[in-house]
Every structure is written in structure tokens, then in C-alpha cells.
User: Which sequence fits this backbone?
């Protein structure tokens, strides 16, 4: 299992791969549905931000994942 705490935890090729995937998602040539199925995201926020927390939760659920707050 790989824990991602910062983009600095990724090597250059992985960062490039993520950027290319984000471009495909933005163009609509790749479907994001179920992309994070079976994955779980832990949300730890230093300051309470309802808008950020809700946006993150909605995005994660739309991609098929789950959120632990």
C-alpha cells in the first residue's frame, strides 16, 4: 500500500502520468466513473472548511470511493 501525503512523494514519471491522465479526463476521452472503486480517502483538515470537505467528499463518491473524516 502506498500512502500519498504530498506530490513530492511521487517520482517524476508518476507525476507526468497523472498530468496526462488529468488531460484525458478533462477532454472526456476517459470515463472517471468507478476510477476509485474500493479506495478510501482519509480527510484530516487543520482548519474546518465545509465547502472544501463537501466538495472532496462528493468528488470521491462520484469516482466510486469512500471517505473517512
Assistant:
Amino acid at each position: 500500500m502506498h500512502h500519498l501525503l504530498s506530490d513530492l512523494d511521487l517520482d517524476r514519471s508518476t507525476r507526468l502520468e497523472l498530468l496526462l491522465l488529468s488531460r484525458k479526463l478533462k477532454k472526456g476521452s476517459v470515463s472517471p466513473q468507478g476510477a476509485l472503486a474500493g479506495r478510501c480517502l482519509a480527510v484530516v483538515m487543520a482548519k474546518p472548511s465545509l465547502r472544501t470537505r463537501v466538495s472532496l467528499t462528493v468528488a470521491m463518491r462520484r469516482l466510486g470511493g469512500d471517505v473517512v473524516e
